[in-house]
């Protein structure tokens, strides 16, 4: 029974999303509006619905990926073929038989093109629809039982038959009310996407797009305006937009490039100034060819230009930071924008693998990148690290290597990796001397991935504890700091490189997760390059914090909220840690179905996304622990920013969305601090306090109590709402 319910849910989601996917969406409200619009012409709506159902059912029965089925990927092309089929031909036995054949054929085209285009990371858009509708139209003349429909030719007779003179008068009034040529053509073009050639359909679709996405709505108008202006400037026949309805090519191109496949920004909007004329040129040139073939052009220009442009972006050697392809598709220009902007600020680049400092405790940078002494040319991007004592010097007496504070201090793996190269047996130098023949001294190179290696040099002879081929975890001791090689005094040389050999040329690579002392206070650096004379500290996890935020798959939590005014909040809340097929981790609430997605890099716990209703205790857990350093350092404050759409109400966000590609004026600053830790190293209890600062001095306060290895409770105070959740199982 449960399996049957799940299959039904997949099919119903897939059916509605087949409509929404025409505008690159999985929004159910938009899906319902477009479903209604398709039935303005009942025959077209019915045949479109049948085609979508057939394709989604075929995908389910044939065992294709249910995620693609639910998102409507397998249904929207067949839906469009069905709409065109229903508008063009009369209903009858032959009609339904050929509709089923056309729907299945388009579905097979969809699967085939998905397999081809996805290899290149490209969308297949509506190419399956184009092939399906062209084949249907070319073959239709051979089916004598398939009669052409005359609906739409005698429109007033049809309206009179449905609603009499009153309906005719109402339609005439509506037609006169929208009198501006530009607006009429824009709405006709929108309606034509669903084969509904009337103003009402266009108006309803425009409202649906506005409710779904302010950015998509703005882009639809912007793209059509650009095309309209180009027609005027070049002297092209603009009247063709009024009767051929091909203007939807410009609308779809604008939404696709301006805000869906590309993160919406001023650069995506600017690129449309060049891309829309290309769509127009393709449209005008192909119209002549397709008129000769007696076929409709439909969405071919949109497909040609969008797929070509996306392919051009794919083969760039160095993807730019201005025109950014959407890394994870959330099916909303706003969600894509807010998620990427937040992640860039937090992680800077998803391409960077975190590499930390190869030391324990506080060290000082004696020579940084592009140093004055030895860090020059191909070896300029490197660090020399020393330890300063209370006397502000790096040694006690300075006559022997043992007098230096950093000598014989442990050196650790800066990240997980494999030992790629090792050199040992080179003697330490006397103070002031250097071994320029064996410049690097005793060294270790670790491989972190195929093009990312790290090297530590000048180690003490005989202290190296690893051999080539060993697999290491971050933080494992690999040797001791020494004074071998070109090293007049004990220090540790550290560099990142692209090749596995000792002495390879260096690369400019930021380090992750370390602390810097600035003006007497510690600051967390998650993606930076240490500067000369900076005091840097490699983060050491606190056992209690590390265990409390060690969310492994299968771990379960049960929280209980007492004396809550809201039914959705009161009582027990059961959560479980899970992973998806791509090994992404999340916490799922059994009560609300909400999910909080997280990432832990070994030193910092991040919540990276929340999906579901805000009326869930898990939502407040996500806010309270948005970013947590699992090391304890007295006086340290952790700072971050949340995506505004995760904390602000719908109306403020509705207004903000319009200008979000150009400017964020709604912000949500996150701060977290540690209190009442009774011992810096082995505290068995403590309090974490966090606050989210919103606009107009509004604040959201959270406080959590930790004991032993788990979060015992957390309390929430937001304006008039205040409650406490007690952990009764972890």
TrEMBL record:
Q: Which InterPro entries match?
A: Ammonium/urea_transptr, Dup_hybrid_motif, M23ase_b-sheet_dom, Urea_transporter
Entry similarity comment = Belongs to the urea transporter family.
The M23ase beta-sheet core domain covers 408-498
An example GO CC term for this entry is:
plasma membrane
Q: Which domain of life is it from?
A: Bacteria
Q: Key word Transferase present in the record?
A: no
Q: Which residues cross the membrane?
A: 30-53, 96-118, 124-141, 186-208, 215-234, 240-262, 269-286, 292-313, 617-635, 647-666
> What GO terms are given for molecular function?
urea transmembrane transporter activity
Keyword RNA-binding belongs to the record: no
**Gene3D superfamilies named in the record:** Ammonium transporter AmtB like domains, Glucose Permease (Domain IIA)
Where does the protein end up?
Cell membrane
Q: Which organism is it from?
A: Geofilum rubicundum JCM 15548
Protein name (database record): M23ase beta-sheet core domain-containing protein
Task: Report keywords, A-Z.
Answer: Cell membrane, Membrane, Transmembrane, Transmembrane helix
| Membrane-related topology note | Multi-pass membrane protein
